[in-house]
């Protein structure tokens, strides 16, 4: 049996930054839970224990009070303090296995996970690093006008409305919805009113909300092949069955067999296919909209990066052509401003406005109204438009520098695909080259790219690397690409070929 005073004296560290009260409480709890102090054991009186440990009696009294409040001990006036019986009821939990029969612990957490949880983790595409050459899809946050943002934020905080400190109303902060509706009508030809806009935390939440409200577990969804892994994960985690639809130079190209089985949802990136970069033709857009009207298909239009087109004006949205209210338009301000902002939006048909307002409030209990208020001021004062214009020029310059570096090193041997818009392009690789291995090797060398293979659900049709340029300073592009090029040459042409190319 444990002599509590001696054991505690050996364990207490009075020089520790952890208060003696906390140490004494945790050590006594540990002794009770481990069985070192058996049920029914009488604890020393507070005066005796305090004397043995050389601490204030009040400290021991506070510890005993806390142990009693949490059910570890039972106190009786005039009788003393005793360890309570906190052991699980064997009838409820079954017999505890002995050392000989106890099962070997699971070596990994997979045994604790659901099937869809395992699939989500196995197919996850998230990177441990989110910044640097050549991370695709990340803007240059160093160029964000932080002083302007800080000034707008300070002004709001000086006379903050209490309503901005509570949960967001269904749909989000109305002045922001009004500002976004004006911006989307002009910049993206989206037809909407402020009431049709629902503020979310980004594309993932927008898709998740739409799927939860418009589809059931087991329903089918068309997704582009290849497609963005994050959106694919959201759909699968919601129990949606994915049907990969191939894309060609005109975008989504469903086969006859696909058309015979209408999905519940079609997720598309018509203005800039992710990741290959092609634009869905007008004929394909009209065909998709008519098919959706006839078969009651919900189209989720992910309009990412469309503001950043080089050499031509941004293209009109698919939603702007929709006369049947079958398109849910989703977008994010993270790539326009900074990803940590975590503000996205969706435009829903008028008849679904109240449904989505209720749904977003019920599922997510939205807040961040101060952030939304600052963003509304930022847009209304014209800062968003000017920032996008400036960044389009900057990203265009970086894109050209990277393309020039590719051409100088490889000539026409490696094609550049999807470079007309966005924050990345796909650098094609020879068919025999494993783009996953190139990605891993370049990561070890300090350069981040993504393998095109991770965006395919079925058999990979093309080999390539998603190569981002937006968050790389002009002067860093050439040296970073030199590092990437060495890795590519090693895998694509072998050591001898790489030496010959350098020579």
From TrEMBL:
Q: What are the entry keywords?
A: DNA-binding, Pyridoxal phosphate, Transcription, Transcription regulation
GO MF terms here are: DNA binding; DNA-binding transcription factor activity; pyridoxal phosphate binding
What family does the Swiss-Prot or TrEMBL record give for this protein?
A: In the C-terminal section; belongs to the class-I pyridoxal-phosphate-dependent aminotransferase family.
Give the span(s) annotated as Disordered.
Answer: 91-114
Where do the HTH gntR-type domain residues begin and end? 18-86
This protein is called HTH-type transcriptional regulatory protein GabR
């Amino acid at each position: 049996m444990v002599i509590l005073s001696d054991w505690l004296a050996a364990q207490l560290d009075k020089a520790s930054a952890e208060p003696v009260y906390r140490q004494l409480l945790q050590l006594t709890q540990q002794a009770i839970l481990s069985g070192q102090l058996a049920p029914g054991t009488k604890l020393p009186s507070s005066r005796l224990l305090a004397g043995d440990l050389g601490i204030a009696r009040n400290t021991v009294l506070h510890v005993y009070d806390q142990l009693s409040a949490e059910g570890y001990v039972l106190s009786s006036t005039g009788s003393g303090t005793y360890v309570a019986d906190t052991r699980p009821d064997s009838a409820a939990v079954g017999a505890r296995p002995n050392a000989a029969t106890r099962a070997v612990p699971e070596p990994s957490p997979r045994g604790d996970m659901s099937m869809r949880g395992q699939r989500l983790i196995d197919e996850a595409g998230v990177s441990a690093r989110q910044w640097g050459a050549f991370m695709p899809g990340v803007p240059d946050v160093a160029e964000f006008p932080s002083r302007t943002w800080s000034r707008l934020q300070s002004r709001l905080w000086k006379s903050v409305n209490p309503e901005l400190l509570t949960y967001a109303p269904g749909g989000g902060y109305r002045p922001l919805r009004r500002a976004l509706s004006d911006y989307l009508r002009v910049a993206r030809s989206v037809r909407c009113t402020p009431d049709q806009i629902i503020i979310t935390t980004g594309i993932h939440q927008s898709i998740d909300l739409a799927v939860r409200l418009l589809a059931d577990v087991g329903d089918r969804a068309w997704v582009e092949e290849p497609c963005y892994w994050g959106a694919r994960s959201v759909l699968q985690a919601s129990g949606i069955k994915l049907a990969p639809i191939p894309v060609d130079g005109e975008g989504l190209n469903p086969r006859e067999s696909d058309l015979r089985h209408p999905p519940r949802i079609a997720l598309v990136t018509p203005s800039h296919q992710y990741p290959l970069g092609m634009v869905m033709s007008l004929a394909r857009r009209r065909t998709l909209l008519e098919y959706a009207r006839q078969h009651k298909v919900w189209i989720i239009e992910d309009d990412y990066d469309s503001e950043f087109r080089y050499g031509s004006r941004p293209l009109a949205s698919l939603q702007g052509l929709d006369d049947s209210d079958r398109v849910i338009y989703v977008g994010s301000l993270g790539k326009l401003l900074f990803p940590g902002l975590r503000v996205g939006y969706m435009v829903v048909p008028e008849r679904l406005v109240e449904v989505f307002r209720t749904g977003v409030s019920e599922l997510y209990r939205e807040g961040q109204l101060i952030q939304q208020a600052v963003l509304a001021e930022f847009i209304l004062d014209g800062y968003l438009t000017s920032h996008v214009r400036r960044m389009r020029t900057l990203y265009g310059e970086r894109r050209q520098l990277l393309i020039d570096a590719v051409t100088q090193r490889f000539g026409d041997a490696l094609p550049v695909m999807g470079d007309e818009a966005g924050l990345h392009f796909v650098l094609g690789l020879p068919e025999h080259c494993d783009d996953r291995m190139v990605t891993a090797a370049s990561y070890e060398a300090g350069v981040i790219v993504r393998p095109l293979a991770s965006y395919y659900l079925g058999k990979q049709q093309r080999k390539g690397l998603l190569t981002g340029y937006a968050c790389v300073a002009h002067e860093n592009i050439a040296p970073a690409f030199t590092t990437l090029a060495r890795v590519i040459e090693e895998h694509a042409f072998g050591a001898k070929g790489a030496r010959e190319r350098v020579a």
